[in-house]
């Protein structure tokens, strides 16, 4: 890992790998959360399995937390390195024509998304850790859907989630393609496919999470 992150190319490659891992996780996370729309039993069963499975709790969960922290830290490191490497801006530069606003401000959207992740962890992960390991309460399979449903009773929280997922969609719109490009997946034949897939991914994944938040709000 130290060797991989010792150069700019290595850091970009490592960041891209962590991004791809998180892209896969988002699909899995959305798939489970969508079950809450179709029925409490399905969501409770899936949540109970994931919440008490040792492999998921003590192997996959720490890997996920590491990937999130690593991705954001590496993003900030690369931004600082880029700023130091170019202390004086070009005299003739038209950013709006040379690149998209999001590609120039990934660090801003990333910081907002990171703040949202802390809120999300406070809402769900810390609550879950407190329930199982601090209070030591017994397994109650029916509690998961109720906990999720109750979190979206307040309009302000739903609004925060909607804004955050819109920003996530914008972040993904650039990050998806950039991640594959960083690992060398660039070819005249495959790049258009990756770009199209990234476009739909950046729309459908955030839209799915937004739909879940709105559904639980309007069905209180």
TrEMBL record:
One of its GO terms (cellular component) is membrane. Coiled coil: none annotated. Gene3D superfamilies: Fumarate reductase/succinate dehydrogenase, transmembrane subunit. InterPro entries: Cytochrome_b-558 (IPR011138), SQR/QFR_C/D (IPR034804). It comes from Chryseobacterium takakiae. The chain crosses the membrane at residues 55-80, 101-122, 155-176, 197-218. Keywords: Membrane, Transmembrane, Transmembrane helix. The keyword Membrane applies. This is Succinate dehydrogenase / fumarate reductase cytochrome b subunit.
